[in-house]
């Protein structure tokens, strides 16, 4: 009976996860795990190209012309008809011109798009951090369950061995031996299910980081809301709104196609064989405005502005609700953790008394099993609330837009 007491006491005192050294390729902290996951993210892989595109748009907006110049060359002769020596050559260099304030609008759009690229990447990184935090604490909860199932299995084995020994010497009935063996089989099934769930949670986390999970899942520190930087999701929504407004301004400044100025060179020889005549000239093309075209483009931009503005408002409202919900979860976890600790102490004391009573033959096996189940449940609740508190801290950081 002393061996049973020691086994159950050790099982109840077991930590949620063994504190073994982390694997060399594992990320021991959430910050390191996020860095590994971000390197594998499609958004991160495409980010350099998107920044290069934004830089190219800025260079195009800083150019002297809205589009590259064009060079054209034409020739005309009578070699296929009369063959009198008539020929004509014409060369033209055409340069498009910026419309009034169009260049400034193009620069503003390029700057807004560049900021949007970085803001969108930051929001994607925060979203990945949320997925990682969820997988991190799901694995912690699964490990708590597996550790508890392992402790219950060890206690059930010790109890079954003791009951079987006492049954063989005639101290206990066969029904008690059957009950102890049935309890052992139940705990064997529980440990198999708990390990399967733990492996699934581990695989989910490894799928994000590309590396095995560390043996110790460290918790995050609390963040002061007043010291938190602007939320990346809100910054991304506001940058999308700025881009939409810049596109509307550019559309309004581009009411017509770009005017063109061209330098023309002409060389002509008639069929009389006289000396060739050369001439030079300038051509100016000014396209007229098209109200339907302008209305079509500005209407699309106004719709984009309305959508972006609504999205920014929704994000702002959702973040307020997320922060409040995460804080309520933290308060509930702290309160339940305190009550769970008190309950675990009472259940452990009750179990110790009943174990002594059972050893002296003053109580039956069913009462002992119920007390043991209550003690394990109470200890599991303590671990569960500790994990829930750490997960709530991560949710608060996530709602505040703070990365690990």
Task: Please explain how this structure is put together.
The structure is a single chain. The chain has a single domain, classed as Outer membrane efflux proteins (OEP) (Up-down Bundle), CATH 1.20.1600.10. Helix content is 67%, strand content 9%. It contains eight helices and four strands, in the order αααββαααββαα. The protein has a four-stranded antiparallel sheet, with no helix packed on it. The radius of gyration is 38 Å and the shape is elongated. The N terminus is likely disordered.
How is the secondary structure organized here?
Layout: H1 2-12, H2 30-40, H3 42-61, E1 70-77, E2 87-96, H4 102-168, H5 174-209, H6 232-253, E3 260-269, E4 277-285, H7 291-359, H8 365-400
Antiparallel strand pairs: 1-2, 2-3, 3-4
Radius of gyration: 38 Å
Q: So, CATH architecture?
A: Up-down Bundle
From the helix content, strand content and strand pairing, which structural class follows? Answer: alpha+beta
Rounded mean pLDDT is 83
**Which oligomeric state applies?**
single chain
The CA-CA distance between the termini, in Å, is 48 Å
Poorly predicted tracts of residues:
1-8, 10-24
- Largest beta-sheet details: 4 strands, antiparallel
Overall shape: it is elongated
For CATH, the homologous superfamily is named as Outer membrane efflux proteins (OEP)
Number of domains: 1
